[in-house]
Every structure is written in C-alpha cells, then in structure tokens.
C-alpha cells in the first residue's frame, strides 16, 4: 500500500454522519487516536510523506472532527479528535469521548487502531480507555510511543518495556513501538503493521 497517496476525503462530526457519508460495511479503515498534543498530526504527515496532510499544532479545544483520508477506493486513514485537553469544558469532553467510543466500538470496517502517546507520559486513563474499547471490539492496536527522540536510548528502552509489561494482559492484540516524526524513527515498522491491517 502506498501511504503517500493519502488524500483528504471528508470530515464528520460523529459516527452517524460518517456512516451516512461512508457506510461502515464498505472498505477498510485504520484509525489514529491520541491525547491532544501527542503528535498525531505530525505522525500522519510523516507516515504519508505529506507535510500538510493533517494540520500540526492546531489550537486544542476547537471544534473537532473525524477527518478521513483516502488511500485508494477501498482503504482509508481516519484521524480521530484528540482527547484529554484540560481546558475543554467537561460537557464537550464527554461528547468527544462518546464519539470516540462509538467509533471504536461500532465502526464495522475498522481494521486497526493506532493509539499515540507521548513516550514521556504514556498510558493515561483515556489512553487505556481507547485501547480497551478497541481490544473489546477485537480490533488490533498499535500503541505508538511518540517523540522518542526526546529520550536517550536507554531510557527509551526502559519505557517501552514498562509499557509492554503494563499492556501484557492483551498479549499480541496490542503492539508497542517507539516513534519519532522528527527523526523518522519507527517509520518502516509502523508502515509494515499498517500494511498488514490493510490486507482484506
Ligand atoms: P497532535 O495534537 O497530536 O496532532 O500533535 P502535533 O502533531 O500537532 O504535535 C504537537 C507538538 O509536538 C508540536 O509542537 C510538534 O512539533 C511536536 N512533535 C510532534 N512529534 C514530535 C516528535 O517526534 N519529536 C519531537 N521532538 N516533537 C514532536
């Protein structure tokens, strides 16, 4: 699969609209989820070799949408709204969380979920919620530890092992890999996992 071919298709405020535009029983989707500022836009841009595909450093807390990028006629990448931004009113946070849960639990064409977490502070409650929603729906998860360039190799390995241990109960349903959009670290591994998920 050539991920450089990704191009913006549509935005949807929730799964009902998404289902209306793109019925869930059609094709294959790979979703990207993460706390706001985890490095999701940078990772999407890096993986598709397109600097401006997903906007980086958006003002957190603005109205958020599910953004869909088309890879080919049958395959799509889905950029889910970033969660966990402290200054968003509780009611709005709940609404987003609901939309994320709905997507992860109900979207039929979902083939895999990448949960992006800053390697310096991974596995927050909402990250665990995303991972368990996906696992309960039997969707494979890639827990991507972003901004890995911010840690020395020895610290990085220690953190990866800790996260793997913490998620050990999920066995091979959750893979854990380091990533750096800045340095390109982890890109071949991630692309190979995404490719696997793209197979029918
Ligand atoms: P998003 O809110 O999850 O989409 O996060 P962004 O992609 O906008 O990134 C948030 C901030 O982290 C920006 O200032 C990025 O430049 C920075 N950032 C993202 N990825 C990396 C990385 O791999 N290494 C470093 N050092 N900074 C990164």
From TrEMBL:
Record Gene3D superfamilies: P-loop containing nucleotide triphosphate hydrolases
Pfam families in the cross-refs: MMR_HSR1
Keyword annotations of the record: Cell cycle, Cell division, GTP-binding, Magnesium, Metal-binding, Nucleotide-binding, Septation
Lineage top rank: taxon: Bacteria
Keyword Ribonucleoprotein in record: no
Every EngB-type G domain range: 26-200
GO CC field: cytosol
Cofactors that this protein relies on: Mg(2+)
Record GO terms (molecular function): GTP binding; metal ion binding
GO biological process: division septum assembly
Function recorded in the entry: Necessary for normal cell division and for the maintenance of normal septation.
NCBIfam families per the UniProt record, alphabetical: GTPase_YsxC
Family: Belongs to the TRAFAC class TrmE-Era-EngA-EngB-Septin-like GTPase superfamily. EngB GTPase family.
Entry-linked HAMAP family: GTPase_EngB (MF_00321)
Name under which the protein is recorded: Probable GTP-binding protein EngB
Organism of origin: Shewanella hanedai (Alteromonas hanedai)
């Amino acid at each position: 699969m050539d991920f450089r071919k990704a191009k913006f298709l549509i935005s949807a405020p929730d799964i009902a609209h998404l289902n209306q535009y793109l019925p869930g029983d059609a094709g294959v989707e790979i979703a990207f989820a993460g706390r706001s500022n985890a490095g999701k836009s940078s990772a999407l841009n890096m993986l598709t070799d397109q600097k401006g595909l997903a906007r980086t450093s958006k003002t957190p807390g603005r109205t958020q949408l599910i953004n869909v990028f088309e890879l080919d006629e049958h395959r799509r990448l889905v950029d889910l709204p970033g969660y966990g931004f402290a200054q968003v009113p509780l009611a709005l946070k709940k609404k987003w969380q609901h939309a994320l849960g709905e997507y992860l639990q109900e979207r039929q064409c979902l083939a895999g979920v990448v949960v992006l977490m800053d390697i310096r502070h991974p596995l927050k409650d909402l990250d665990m919620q995303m991972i368990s929603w996906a696992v309960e729906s039997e969707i494979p998860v890639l827990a991507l530890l972003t901004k890995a360039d911010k840690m020395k190799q020895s610290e990085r390995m220690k953190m990866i092992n800790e996260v793997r241990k913490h998620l050990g109960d999920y066995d091979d349903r959750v893979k854990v890999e380091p990533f750096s959009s800045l340095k390109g670290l982890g890109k071949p591994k991630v692309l190979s996992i995404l490719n696997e998920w793209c197979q029918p």
